[in-house]
Amino acid sequence: MSTSTTPQPEERLENAIELQDVAGLSQGQIVRRRFFRHKGAMIGLAVLALTALLALTSVGVGPVPGWWQWTPYEHGPVVNPGGAPTLSMPTWLGGDGFAIGAHPFGQDEIGRDIFARVMAGVQTSLMVMVIIGGVAALIGVAVGAAAGFFRGRVDTLLMRATDLVITIPTIVIGAVVGKLAGGVSGVVFALALGLILWTTLARLVRGEFLSLREREFVDAARVAGASDLRIIFKHILPNAIGTLIVAVTLLMSSAILLETALSYLGFGIVRPEISLGQLINEYQQAFSTRPWLFWWPGLFIVVIALTINFIGDGLRDAFDPRQKRIPSERKMAQAMEADSTAERARVSSVRGDQATDTGSGSGT
């Protein structure tokens, strides 16, 4: 009993529309086109860019001042009772009319502006996230590429070392590293965490290299006299870059949550430096009396983690050739109409040829 593999009309039309959309485009252009069409990724990218821009410009970076009137460490008179936020919602939302005021996020017990402190915490958390992602990517790619390409004893040695790090719970080893490096500076803390968060990436890269090293283009490069390093960096790694980018993006999302957890527990960034987790740890005693001290750091933690995840989903869909974009109803209708017109033209042509053949036979 034979099974038919002929695609259904709808599937055939979807494939035709997708091929028409990417006709004449390079692989890089196709990836960019798919990524920019991913609504969730675009929203996440826009929100993350606006958040970073707000954090960098409001309180400034290093010696460069920002446009906000308060600094993260500046004391001032407490405006509202208990340091309540001066931000007021519009009347149609039940407020007294929209107003920002001098301290829209409120103040702490000694008059420090919470907006300035939260923006400084966002800067630190973003910096830690980027450093952890970069360090983990470098180590993970190096270990995974060497293990997957050379195999044998090199693979066994590197993967057993990776398994040893994986067996230790991340939060435990992160707490130990954070206790040793967190009190030095945020940069040192991020570098230390990056040295322990590369294991998953290394295993993923190893799997990609084990698969790609058996391809024909690797054999052709080896026959042409290319060295092992050239084959790794010029031939195999570019073909694994899609998986690598997606994995690093999701790792950065996990990194900011880990930094927040460690700082909240007191094993991460400590004063006088400011991070979002450290702000929650500092104000935990006021949770029941002044909850706005937790609202804003928690909100920005969630926003940053979600936007990174959305961007990672968009990159995964863009690099995955198996992902197909469902055409709109209008495009499907136009394609079906064009397909019907082509079918009618073909039938008319066949009938005309048959009529011609019949007339020729009668004349003979």
Report the end-to-end length measured between terminal Cα atoms. Answer: 45 Å
Radius of gyration: 29 Å
Main β-sheet description: none
Can you identify the CATH superfamily of the largest domain? Answer: MetI-like
Shape: flat
User: What is the arithmetic mean of pLDDT?
Assistant: 80
Strand content: under 5%
Number of strands: 0
Order of helices and strands: HHHHHHHHHHHHHH
Task: Give the class-level CATH name of the largest domain.
Answer: Mainly Alpha
CATH architectural designation of the largest domain: Orthogonal Bundle
What would you call the structural class?
Answer: mainly alpha
How many separate helices? 14
Low-confidence stretches: none
Percent helix? 55-70%
Total domain modules: 2
Q: And the CATH topology of the largest domain? A: MetI-like fold
Transmembrane segments: 41-61, 126-150, 157-177, 183-205, 236-258, 293-315
GO biological process, one term: transmembrane transport
InterPro entries: BP-dependent_transpt_permease, MetI-like, MetI-like_sf, OppC_N
Biased composition (Polar residues): 355-364
Task: Give a concise summary.
This protein is mainly alpha-helical and 364 residues long. Helix content is 67%, strand content 0%. Helix 4 packs parallel to helix 8 (199-212), helix 6 (170-181) packs across helix 11 and helix 11 (241-265) runs parallel beside helix 12.
